[in-house]
From TrEMBL:
Entry EC no(s): 5.1.3.2
Xref: InterPro entries: Epimerase_deHydtase, NAD(P)-bd_dom_sf, UDP_G4E
Catalyzed chemical reaction(s): UDP-alpha-D-glucose = UDP-alpha-D-galactose
Classification via Gene3D superfamilies: NAD(P)-binding Rossmann-like Domain, UDP-galactose 4-epimerase, domain 1
GO function term, MF aspect, one: UDP-glucose 4-epimerase activity
The name this protein goes by in its record: UDP-glucose 4-epimerase
Any one Gene Ontology BP term: galactose catabolic process via UDP-galactose, Leloir pathway
Pathway(s) this gene product operates in, as recorded in its UniProt entry: Carbohydrate metabolism; galactose metabolism
Pfam families: Epimerase
Length: 326
């Protein structure tokens, strides 16, 4: 049986997809340098290779040795403020390393590719542009978003030049954990609101900060489209199946199409955990759009995707359960 190469499969989202692939009876090879990933979060059934996606020779060897038919590319750095302080780290690890990975795919004839892109490619969409569609102009405002958009451009151009098709998935705010408790968000430095709230509820942090309470939203705090990681993992399987059927390349938003304010998320975490933790109101952070919501019509229509976990309390419950067990 041919296999699927999952880069970054020891990370938060990659490990969920790796479990999903194994559940579907796929042969999975994970390539991860464990810079932020966790060995224990990967499925035992997967073959693990400790290495870097920017290592061209290694990747060429892996693609051939494991008869890889498709690549799912999660590996990368994801901390937006860090990307502002150290942009070249992001252009190296997210853009240049992906260039090496793509070269290896072209050299070995691997022509199916699923890529983790991000809503950060849209930058600060205006109120009139919400919810954002895939046609909303891309205008990243930080090196993280730019490093991912540059990868989208490479994919488009490689598709034009070679026998190569891809699905680029623009994730909105990914949250929650595997309902079976096999993996979750273990990334150090994670700044994701639901994770940080869960840690605060469980006493692992002293207090929670809200950055900005004077936005023009229903309660003054930012609104985001939170998608349960298991629903997102399913999208990857659908993307792979579309590529296997020979379907064309595409870019798709991944979100539910509605959102919650920071205060609503905090209330949900307090409600589900039954812990009333301290919340501090802090000034706005530069570069935070007031509202970011996906128009996911294309994803639903083209892949027949139907979320199974579109429920804030369930997202929070799985996130809390994961924090409690780690
Ligand atoms: N978490 C989110 O909300 C979110 C939102 C939008 C997009 N994304 C994208 O999804 C992907 C996965 O994010 P995540 O939240 O799972 O992050 P993560 O940090 O948990 O996972 C990234 C994984 O990649 C590995 N890695 C990093 N650089 C590598 C390299 N050069 N070679 C091999 N392995 C490497 C890390 O060890 C880690 O296991 C990223 O590409 C990210 O940009 C995430």
């Amino acid at each position: 049986m041919s296999s699927i190469l999952v880069t970054g499969g020891a990370g938060y989202i990659g490990s969920h997809v790796a479990h999903e692939l194994v559940d579907d009876g796929r042969q999975v090879v994970i390539l991860d340098n464990l810079s932020t990933g966790v060995r224990e979060n990967m499925p035992d059934e997967a073959t693990f290779v400790h290495g870097d996606v920017g290592d061209y020779e290694l990747v060429v060897r892996l693609l051939a040795e494991h008869d890889v038919a498709a690549v799912m590319h999660f590996a990368g750095n994801i901390v937006v403020p860090e990307s502002v302080e150290n942009p070249l780290k992001y252009y190296r690890n997210n853009t240049a390393a992906t260039r090496e990975l793509l070269s290896a795919c072209v050299a070995t004839g691997v022509g199916q590719f699923v890529f983790s892109s991000t809503a950060a490619v849209y930058g600060m969409p205006s109120a009139e542009e919400l919810p954002v569609t895939e046609e909303t102009p891309t205008a990243p405002i930080n090196p993280y978003g730019a490093s991912k958009l540059m990868t989208e451009w490479m994919l488009r151009d490689v598709d034009h030049a070679h026998d190569f098709r891809y699905v680029a998935l623009r994730y909105f705010n990914v949250a929650g954990a595997d309902p079976k408790g096999r993996t979750g968000q273990s990334t150090p430095q994670a700044t994701h609101l639901i994770k940080v709230c869960s840690q605060t509820a469980l006493g692992m942090r002293d207090e929670l900060s809200i950055f900005g309470t004077d936005y023009e939203t229903r309660d003054g705090t930012c609104i985001r489209d939170y998608i349960h990681v298991t629903d997102l993992a399913r999208v990857h399987i659908l993307a792979l199946e579309a590529l296997e059927r020979g379907e064309e390349s595409r870019v798709l938003n991944c979100g539910y199409g509605h959102g919650y304010t920071v205060r609503e998320v905090i209330d949900a975490v307090k409600r589900v955990s039954e812990v009333d933790f301290d919340v501090v109101e802090a000034p706005r952070r530069a570069g935070d759009p007031p509202e970011l919501i996906a128009d996911s019509t294309k994803l639903r229509e083209q892949f027949g995707w139907q979320p199974a976990h579109d429920d804030l309390d369930e997202i929070v419950r799985t996130a809390l359960e994961w924090e409690e067990q780690t």
